Amino acid sequence: MRLQTSLRLKRILQASLMMLAMVVSAPNYAETENDISEPEVIIKQTDSKKISEYYVNGILVEIKVEPKNAPTYYLIPAENGQMLRTDESQLLIPTWKILEW
User: Where is the signal peptide (predicted)?
Assistant: First the structure.
């Protein structure tokens, strides 16, 4: 009886240690490559316009075009390999206005 209890305790202890090791070694998902909270932005400036390319995990997700004498527009990649033009951004990036005048 004492031997069975000792073996049970040993197995419970081993299982507990294994679960603890799994929890401790689990990746922190907020810091992995899949974090899409902030895209990488590449800005290109010419005399007539400013182009901002937005990449998430190395994939182009949006291009913002700001012409000097025209309204801003966005280009979004479509499934067929072409770009769709829109007047509003499709990126969901948290932004706050602190001051405006």
Answer: 1-30
